[in-house]
Amino acid sequence: MLMLGFTGFLGLLKIVLMALAAFGLIDAAFRREDAFRAADKQNKVFWLIVLGIALVVSYLFSILSILPIAGVIASIVYIVDVRPAVKQVSGGSGWGRRRGGSSSDGPYGPYNGGR
After folding, report:
1. Nearest 5 degrees, angle CA 44-CA 37-CA 85?
2. How far apart are alpha carbons 114 and 10 in whole angstroms?
3. Which residues have CB under 8 Å from 62's CB, separation 6+?
4. Which residues make beta-bridge pairs with 106?
5. 56 exposed, middle or buried (CB, 10 Å; 0-12, 13-18, 19+)?
6. Rounded to the nearest 10 degrees, how much is the dihedral formed by the CA atoms of 93, 97, 103, 108?
7. CA atoms of 106 and 2, how far apart (whole Å)
Protein backbone atom coordinates (compact mmCIF):
# COMPACT_ATOMS: atom_id res chain seq x y z
CA MET A 1 0.00 0.00 0.00
CA LEU A 2 2.82 2.39 0.84
CA MET A 3 4.59 1.66 -2.46
CA LEU A 4 1.38 2.34 -4.37
CA GLY A 5 1.12 5.77 -2.77
CA PHE A 6 4.79 6.48 -3.47
CA THR A 7 4.38 5.42 -7.10
CA GLY A 8 1.33 7.65 -7.44
CA PHE A 9 3.25 10.57 -5.98
CA LEU A 10 6.15 10.00 -8.39
CA GLY A 11 3.69 9.82 -11.27
CA LEU A 12 2.17 13.16 -10.30
CA LEU A 13 5.63 14.66 -9.86
CA LYS A 14 6.61 13.41 -13.30
CA ILE A 15 3.54 15.06 -14.84
CA VAL A 16 4.30 18.35 -13.07
CA LEU A 17 7.93 18.31 -14.25
CA MET A 18 6.87 17.52 -17.81
CA ALA A 19 4.38 20.40 -17.67
CA LEU A 20 7.15 22.71 -16.43
CA ALA A 21 9.41 21.74 -19.35
CA ALA A 22 6.51 21.98 -21.83
CA PHE A 23 5.59 25.45 -20.58
CA GLY A 24 9.18 26.61 -20.98
CA LEU A 25 9.42 25.09 -24.46
CA ILE A 26 6.19 26.69 -25.67
CA ASP A 27 7.09 30.03 -24.12
CA ALA A 28 10.55 30.00 -25.73
CA ALA A 29 9.02 29.10 -29.09
CA PHE A 30 6.84 32.22 -29.05
CA ARG A 31 9.58 34.64 -28.00
CA ARG A 32 11.49 36.71 -30.56
CA GLU A 33 15.02 35.63 -31.49
CA ASP A 34 16.50 39.11 -31.12
CA ALA A 35 15.12 39.44 -27.59
CA PHE A 36 17.34 36.57 -26.44
CA ARG A 37 20.41 38.29 -27.85
CA ALA A 38 19.38 41.68 -26.45
CA ALA A 39 18.91 40.17 -22.98
CA ASP A 40 22.43 38.71 -23.23
CA LYS A 41 21.17 35.14 -22.84
CA GLN A 42 21.85 32.17 -25.08
CA ASN A 43 20.04 32.22 -28.41
CA LYS A 44 16.53 30.95 -28.99
CA VAL A 45 17.59 27.73 -30.73
CA PHE A 46 19.77 26.77 -27.75
CA TRP A 47 16.87 27.13 -25.32
CA LEU A 48 14.48 25.30 -27.63
CA ILE A 49 16.90 22.37 -27.84
CA VAL A 50 17.61 22.32 -24.09
CA LEU A 51 13.95 22.52 -23.12
CA GLY A 52 12.95 19.97 -25.76
CA ILE A 53 15.54 17.54 -24.44
CA ALA A 54 14.35 18.25 -20.89
CA LEU A 55 10.78 17.39 -21.91
CA VAL A 56 11.77 14.15 -23.65
CA VAL A 57 14.10 13.07 -20.83
CA SER A 58 11.45 13.74 -18.18
CA TYR A 59 9.04 11.58 -20.17
CA LEU A 60 11.41 8.68 -20.86
CA PHE A 61 13.35 8.32 -17.61
CA SER A 62 12.42 7.81 -13.99
CA ILE A 63 12.29 10.85 -11.73
CA LEU A 64 14.93 9.29 -9.49
CA SER A 65 17.65 9.32 -12.18
CA ILE A 66 20.02 12.21 -12.86
CA LEU A 67 18.83 13.20 -16.36
CA PRO A 68 15.33 14.37 -15.38
CA ILE A 69 16.84 16.31 -12.50
CA ALA A 70 19.13 18.11 -14.97
CA GLY A 71 16.09 18.78 -17.16
CA VAL A 72 14.20 20.26 -14.23
CA ILE A 73 17.14 22.50 -13.41
CA ALA A 74 17.28 23.70 -17.04
CA SER A 75 13.53 24.38 -17.04
CA ILE A 76 13.73 26.30 -13.78
CA VAL A 77 16.68 28.36 -15.04
CA TYR A 78 14.70 29.29 -18.16
CA ILE A 79 11.54 30.19 -16.24
CA VAL A 80 13.23 32.08 -13.40
CA ASP A 81 16.15 33.78 -15.20
CA VAL A 82 15.82 33.80 -18.99
CA ARG A 83 12.07 34.31 -19.40
CA PRO A 84 11.82 37.51 -17.29
CA ALA A 85 14.88 39.01 -18.99
CA VAL A 86 13.58 38.24 -22.48
CA LYS A 87 10.11 39.44 -21.54
CA GLN A 88 11.50 42.73 -20.23
CA VAL A 89 13.57 43.32 -23.37
CA SER A 90 10.76 42.46 -25.76
CA GLY A 91 8.30 44.49 -23.71
CA GLY A 92 5.35 42.16 -24.01
CA SER A 93 3.84 38.78 -23.56
CA GLY A 94 5.40 37.21 -26.65
CA TRP A 95 2.19 35.34 -27.48
CA GLY A 96 1.21 37.53 -30.43
CA ARG A 97 -1.22 39.75 -28.53
CA ARG A 98 -0.93 43.50 -28.45
CA ARG A 99 -1.86 45.23 -25.24
CA GLY A 100 -3.02 48.74 -25.89
CA GLY A 101 -1.53 51.20 -28.32
CA SER A 102 -2.24 51.36 -32.00
CA SER A 103 -0.65 49.92 -35.11
CA SER A 104 1.24 53.19 -35.67
CA ASP A 105 3.00 53.12 -32.31
CA GLY A 106 6.75 52.88 -32.49
CA PRO A 107 9.27 51.93 -29.84
CA TYR A 108 9.25 55.50 -28.43
CA GLY A 109 5.54 56.28 -28.71
CA PRO A 110 3.06 57.07 -31.46
CA TYR A 111 4.37 57.85 -34.93
CA ASN A 112 2.94 61.12 -36.20
CA GLY A 113 4.16 60.97 -39.80
CA GLY A 114 7.14 63.31 -39.38
CA ARG A 115 5.17 66.34 -38.22
Report:
1. 85
2. 62
3. 10, 68
4. 109
5. middle
6. -10
7. 61
Q: If DSSP states are collapsed to H, E and C, what string results for the chain?
A: CHHHHHHHHHHHHHHHHHHHHHHHHHHHHHCCHHHHHHCCCCCHHHHHHHHHHHHHHHHHCCCCCHHHHHHHHHHHHHHHHHHHHHHHHHCCCCCCCCCCCCCCEECCEECCCCC
Q: Dihedral, CA atoms, 16, 82, 33, 97, nearest 10 degrees?
A: 70
Note down pLDDT in tens along the chain; length 115 residues.
Answer: 566 666 788 888 899 999 999 999 999 999 988 888 888 888 999 999 999 999 999 989 888 888 989 999 999 999 999 999 998 888 765 555 455 555 666 666 666 666 6
